[in-house]
From TrEMBL:
Signal peptide: 1-22
Protein species of origin: Leucothrix arctica
Residues covered by the YtkA-like domain: 84-151
UniProt name for this protein: YtkA-like domain-containing protein
PROSITE patterns: PROKAR_LIPOPROTEIN
Amino acid sequence: MLLQNKLLTISLCIFMPSLMTACQSGSPESTQSAKETSEIAVTDKVIASSSDSVKQGTAQAWTISTKSKNNHFDGILECQQAPSVGDFQNCQLQLSQSENPVDDASLAIDGGMKAHGHGLPTQPKMLAVEGQAGVYKIDGLKFSMPGAWTVGFLIKANGVNDQLIFDFIV
């Protein structure tokens, strides 16, 4: 796995000079995914854990799920296809608490690339999906480059404040 990551780093440095920070530092963290706390799936079939890269080029639905930091909420981030560079993503968050959908939550979204020290290139907004309990559309989400990304949600609902954090590879 380490040899594979080094080869990926070398390939990215040669073919994508915009990744010069990672190329100069030789940091394998810039091409590895983050924590092993989430599960990534394409439709109903798991294709990778968060320690692996997400398969690119699929037109199938893509999901990743996790528990909130203080275990108050469960979240499923679902996109019409695997996250990609450049285009606005068509994604939504399904939020539940004790297996019940959470409506009327106050949500804030933020994210970025820890290895590169920058945030999202846009300022996405959360919108409740009418007629779908506990479902919130993410409007304006975009990724500017391939690599390890974190997308987090600050949640205020039912008298509780908590955070959902999703780590994955674009």
